[in-house]
Design goal:
With 165 residues, the protein is an alpha+beta fold. It has one domain. The chain has helices at 29-79, 81-85, 106-122; strands spanning 127-133, 138-146, 156-164. The radius of gyration is 36 Å and the shape is rod-shaped. The N and C termini lie far apart (110 Å). The chain crosses the membrane at residues 27-47.
Amino acid sequence: MRRCAGTADIHHGDHAMNGPRRIQQGVSLIEVLVALFVLAFGMLGIAGMQTMAMKANQSAFERNAVVISANSIAERMRSNQAAARTGGYNRTMPTGACTAPSGTDRVSVDTSRWLDELNRNFGTTACGAINCAGTPAFCRITVRWDDSRVANGGAAQTFEVDVRI
């Protein structure tokens, strides 16, 4: 092998031009901190999604209970068709507190029990209205309740169902 004058051998070993080469072992503290930050941020996201899911689940549960409650008064009205068809169950949605009728007749007792059920299940702001008209009677049953726990949900939710008596 020939050599040119003025050239040196290039040596690849422990003593390179920039000093000895070191092999990194383990991870640095900064890498650990970055990994912990990413993990903590991800866990916060999961916790937030879980909270939103629980709120939405509660809202869906309440909406289902409202449907059952509306069907409850509809069945009571079907069992007393004469009163329902003449508007005996009719009541408007109050703007203030929801007061139940105090009479002892069947319509007053049915309505009072229904409104008490709404207050017990959905709080004191829950209320209901009924409007029956026509022959055969078509009745619109309306239930209003507070659903402000859910993000992006309005404070007052309304459910309406139309039934034929």
